[in-house]
């Protein structure tokens, strides 16, 4: 059950209660004053409006806080009552198909082939940027009824509200200064009250604008991250092919998905404010100034905008290209640190710390030089930008606002007066005093109009400055857009296997554009028919052929041992069957599923996932998958006992223990954990690539017999001849003069015995030549001895130094 609420009044709630009491007392006093003075009615309305505005804002905020706190407690109670989960719906394949044309078939105007911008197009304000940004917006805002559309609409409402409040503040500023100069104390105090009331609303509006901008940014990032993850981690193995076959994103996708994506979303969300709000301000304030200053001032303002934009556009450095290069260098520097962390033990054994230190320093120096060059370029541009937008525009604004004062015929200044001179008043005062009153009233009107126009000009200059500053922001956004678009277009290319040769040319032999083979899933066994074993290169380069034409079939119970020298292509066979490497020619057949009743692969390097001890045994299953399959922890303990790891749960802790298992387990324990996964999933076929090289021979035999006893057909990749006893067939690679031939034999047959006998005969022939080699060595030593003594004593002295140096070799 959820705990009962123990809410205490927040400071905002207490402030609202006190303000309500103050408002009641204020209203009572104003009612009394209204009876005494007929002019207090307006005062009562203004002060009541001020008090009501503040009360609504503070009490509304306090009520919202109260509602949110109670809702949080109710949600917490539900979580205590039952376990809850978050359901994330994956992106539909139809969505990927609809978006594929946006990323793989761009229009000719965008000047991009295969969706990836070519190297000769720098990221900047061009058609490619507009197309890329529009394609990404299709992902960030999928439909008009989405949450992102609601956030953008709400943000737009608050932006318009802030523009309206700016107009109100400009008028109030002129009224306050007018009343201050005229010495009207009551009107001045009322203006201060209205100023504070509007200020409270403006503060709330500004806070909501920043809050909504952050919400838009995280909403954009959520959409893009889920979209990228669905492309990156799917059945097409894009997370492997992206780095090892395609190479379109360089060293890896981590820099793109984490840093570049975050910067892009922040920049895109801020662009909505930095462009939308100033644009509305420009239209609104220009219209107001047109009514106050006339068409001449408006024409001068438009000319000023055009001249400033042209000047800054011509002198603006390529910020987009610089940001894109900076992101790439940041990724390279991060990859160097990640590589050192992943290979820390090997580097420590070799004592390679100084070498790695030099490499890291060199990488950072390259990054630092590039960033310093960007900062140097920004110095001059920022000087020009600040001088033009701040000082030049301010001086120009003073000139514009002075037009109605010095050139009233060119302006449209309407002289208004709050207290016009009436005929009754003229009859009571002298002509001189009437002229003096009219002159002061006219001066006050000019003062009010000048202050209002000045405030509008300052707001207009701020809006125009933000529009000009946004040119640089747009250039930086173009750099982020190019990198994110490159990542998604490359993922779409991997997902759709859309590799085509360049226009007007043929693809390289054994490149990704030259795949003509077939990978068939649904065969009860492993079959390769006329398949060349090729080590692929990054697209679009062709790969290196290792075996010309490989053919074999493995059925249930046909245990196969694949042997051969290093570099012959033993592990390449498992990669082709797993679908990691393409089948360039011929046919590759394998079971449809991976895991139980399917096929499983144990790689050379054992992988231990982050998680509990239970997760290490059942990987890639999760605890929920294990429970759904009806498996129990007692079965896991039995599996560990079978691979001689039953002590792990006692040594390391219970099944829920979380550790860095790759650092806890030894090399042999890691390999036995891999065999434990094999026994847990019980596939029909299993590729074991050097899976027992760190295990003793007695335990190794036990592991193989246990796996065979569970009905698992083993395809082992190893150079250990002792493993033949556990297999039925051998596939020897790397034969022939060019090491591109192979031999498939059944162990125990006459041909296999002849092969072994042939190998023994070669060894006997070599052993029979040992005596001849010894005799030849003795003759060479005697000849060398004659060379040293034939020169006599002088030669011996002359060659004494050389003789001492060569003595150890003799």
UniProtKB/TrEMBL annotation:
Domain ABC transporter intervals: 526-772
Keywords tagged on the record: ATP-binding, Coiled coil, Membrane, Nucleotide-binding, Transmembrane, Transmembrane helix, Transport
Start and end residues of each ABC transmembrane type-1 domain: 156-388
GO BP: any one term: peroxisome organization
Residues passing through the membrane, by range: none
GO cellular component: peroxisomal membrane
Disordered: region residues: 789-810
Compositionally biased region (Acidic residues): 792-810
Cited Pfam families: ABC_membrane_2, ABC_tran
Organism: Friedmanniomyces endolithicus
Protein name per its UniProtKB record: ABC transporter domain-containing protein
Coiled-coil boundaries: 746-783
Molecular-function GO term, any one: long-chain fatty acid transmembrane transporter activity
Family of this protein: Belongs to the ABC transporter superfamily. ABCD family. Peroxisomal fatty acyl CoA transporter (TC 3.A.1.203) subfamily.
């Amino acid at each position: 059950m959820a705990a009962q609420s123990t809410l205490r009044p927040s400071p905002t709630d207490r402030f609202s209660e006190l303000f309500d009491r103050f408002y009641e007392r204020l209203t009572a006093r104003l009612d009394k004053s209204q009876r005494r003075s007929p002019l207090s009615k307006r005062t009562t309305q203004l002060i009541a409006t001020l008090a009501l505005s503040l009360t609504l804002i503070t009490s509304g905020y306090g009520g919202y806080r109260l509602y949110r706190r109670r809702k949080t407690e109710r949600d917490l109670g539900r979580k205590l009552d039952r376990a809850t989960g978050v359901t994330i719906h994956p992106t539909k394949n139809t969505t990927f198909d609809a978006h594929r044309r946006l990323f793989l078939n761009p229009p000719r105007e965008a000047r991009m082939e295969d969706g990836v911008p070519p190297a000769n197009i720098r990221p900047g304000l061009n058609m490619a940027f507009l197309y890329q940004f529009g394609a990404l917006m299709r992902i960030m805002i999928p439909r008009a009824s989405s949450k992102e559309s609601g956030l953008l609409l709400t943000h737009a409402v608050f932006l318009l509200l802030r523009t309206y409040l700016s107009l109100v503040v400009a008028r109030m500023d002129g009224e306050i200064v007018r009343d201050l100069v005229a010495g009207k104390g009551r009107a001045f105090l009322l203006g201060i009250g209205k100023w504070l009331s509007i200020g409270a609303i403006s503060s709330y509006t500004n806070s909501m604008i920043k809050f909504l901008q952050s919400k838009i940014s995280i909403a954009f990032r959520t959409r893009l991250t889920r979209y990228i993850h669905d492309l990156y981690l799917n059945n097409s193995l894009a997370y492997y092919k992206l780095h090892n076959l395609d190479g379109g994103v360089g060293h890896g996708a981590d820099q793109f998905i984490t840093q570049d994506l975050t910067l892009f979303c922040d920049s895109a969300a801020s662009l909505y404010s930095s462009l939308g709000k100033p644009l509305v301000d420009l239209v609104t304030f220009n219209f107001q100034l047109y009514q106050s200053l006339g068409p001449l001032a408006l024409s001068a303002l438009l000319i000023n905008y055009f001249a400033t934009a042209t000047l800054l556009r011509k002198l603006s450095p390529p910020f987009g290209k610089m940001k894109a290069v900076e992101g790439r260098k940041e990724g390279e520097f991060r990859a160097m640190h990640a590589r050192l962390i992943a290979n820390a033990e090997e580097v420590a054994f070799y004592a390679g710390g100084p070498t790695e230190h030099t490499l890291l320093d060199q990488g950072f120096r390259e990054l630092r030089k590039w960033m310093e060059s960007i900062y140097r370029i920004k110095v001059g541009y920022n000087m020009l930008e600040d001088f033009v937008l701040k000082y030049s525009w301010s001086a120009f604004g003073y000139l514009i606002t002075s037009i109605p004062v010095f050139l009233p015929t060119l302006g449209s200044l309407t002289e208004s007066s709050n207290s016009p001179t009436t005929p009754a008043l003229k009859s009571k005062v002298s002509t001189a005093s009437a002229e003096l009153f009219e002159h002061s009233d006219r001066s006050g009107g000019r003062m009010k109009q000048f202050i209002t126009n000045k405030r509008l000009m300052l707001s207009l200059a701020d809006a125009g400055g933000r529009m000009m500053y946004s040119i640089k922001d747009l250039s930086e956004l173009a750099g982020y857009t190019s990198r994110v678009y490159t990542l998604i277009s490359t993922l779409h290319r991997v997902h759709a296997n859309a590799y085509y040769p360049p226009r007007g040319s043929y693809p390289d032999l054994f490149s990704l554009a030259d795949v003509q083979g077939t990978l068939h899933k649904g065969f009860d066994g492993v079959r390769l028919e006329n398949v060349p074993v090729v080590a692929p290169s990054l697209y679009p380069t062709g790969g290196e052929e290792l075996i010309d034409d490989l053919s074999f079939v493995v059925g249930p119970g046909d245990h196969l041992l694949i042997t051969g020298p290093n570099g012959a292509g033993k592990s390449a066979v498992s990669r082709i069957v797993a679908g990691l490497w393409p089948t360039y020619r011929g046919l590759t057949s394998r079971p449809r599923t991976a895991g139980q009743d399917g096929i499983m692969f144990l790689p050379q390097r054992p992988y231990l996932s982050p998680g509990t001890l239970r997760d290490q045994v059942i990987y890639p299953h999760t605890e929920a998958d294990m429970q759904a399959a009806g498996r129990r922890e007692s079965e896991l303990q039995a599996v560990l006992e079978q691979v001689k790891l039953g002590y792990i749960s006692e040594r390391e802790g219970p099944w829920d223990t979380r550790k860095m298992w790759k650092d806890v387990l030894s090399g042999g324990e890691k390999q036995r954990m891999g065999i434990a996964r094999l026994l847990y999933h019980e596939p029909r076929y299993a590729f074991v690539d050097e899976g027992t090289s760190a295990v003793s021979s007695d335990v190794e035999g036990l592991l193989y017999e246990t796996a065979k006893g569970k009905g698992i057909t083993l395809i082992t990749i190893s150079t250990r001849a002792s493993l033949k006893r556990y297999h039925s067939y051998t596939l020897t690679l790397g034969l022939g003069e060019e090491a591109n031939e192979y031999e498939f034999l059944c162990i125990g047959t006459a041909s296999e015995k002849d092969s072994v006998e042939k190998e023994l005969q070669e060894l006997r022939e070599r052993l029979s030549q040992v005596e001849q080699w010894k005799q030849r060595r003795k003759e060479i030593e005697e000849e060398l001895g004659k060379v040293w003594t034939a020169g006599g004593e002088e030669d011996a002295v002359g060659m004494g130094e050389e003789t001492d140096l060569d003595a150890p070799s003799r």
